[in-house]
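Quick question, first post here. What does this chain look like in 3D?
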Amino acid sequence: MRELADEFTDIRDAVRALCAEFPPEYHRRIDEERAYPEEFVDALTRNGWMAALIPEKYGGSGLGLAEAAVIMEEINRAGGNSGACHGQMYNMNTLVRHGSEEQRQFYLPKIAAGELRLQSMGVTEPTTGTDTTKIKTTAVRKGDRYVINGQKVWISRVQHSDLMILLARTTPLDQVKKKSEGLSIFLVDIKAAMQAGMQVTPIRNMVNHETNELFFDNLEIPAENLIGTEGQGFKYILTGLNAERTLIAAECIGDGKWFTDKITDYVREREVFGRPIGQNQGVQFPIAQAHIEIEAAALMTRKACRLFDAGEPCGAEANMAKYLAAKASWEAAEACLQFHGGFGFAAEYDVERKFRETRLYQVAPISTNLILSYVAEHVLGMPRSF
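> Answer (accepted):
Ran it through. Tokens below.
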């Protein structure tokens, strides 16, 4: 989109130049080996992109979510997968906005310098899913420690991160006036926790996405690792969730542009029955429709970023941006695979890899149906359905 490209040209050009150093063969190999793109993430860190949201006084770039969204978009548009590193973007706002000054001074310079990675957020549980206020993981204060017990699932990048933001219940659900109260967030040293009561079990999945199930058995963490005020964690975690959904929208926009660029080039050249297949309206229309929807999703994503950076409520916009962008990227993926024919299934074309990757966002980090429920209730004022 011209407005966005003009506004963030310098960032786009710089990220594209870095991504060009990691050609399709690199990402294809990482996918085949089900490996983590260490070299790519390290390059992003060295060039300051992973510290984009850290204030300048702590060694970061002091940028906003709007700029972070552009970074994530360009990684995916270049054929990469931002899922390997986006956690440091959406988690950062939780620490920056709600962490104590002592926590910011201790952790942020190390994260900005690449000495530490903050890539994981432990919220989802097997028995509660998106019903976050019903989580069963507990944190009980004992002197200068909290003792953690419980279970989490679909917790990503744990094996390639140093720190994790963890949501746990500090006051039992039956003892609070509102179900969103009594939840707290903590900063967890992952390596230390794995030696002291946290078990990490990898989950093999459809895409090359490092995700895990976590078990906590009397894990003790320092009380000073509490972020903000005890019992207010649900409010704090929304900061990260709104940022996450907006950034995922940007990533889907990047995917959608990759698919439409890829298939548009292909159908111009691919000839069947003596004519380019891109001459047929049956081919043109699905691609054009995907392009239109990607542009519309980009506008909503920009609006969500603007509200988030201004500190204003943006739950509706973040959810709608994620819905629109995920839908558009999936439609672009369908068209790209369909019109490549058999070649779309060949690994060397990268279509099947990107097809698998973008399909995830119909489900995560929040399913499309739950977004519709949110809009029905919170935007349109319909009765709560669950």
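The two ends are 38 Å apart (CA to CA).
The chain is about 50% helix and 15% strand.
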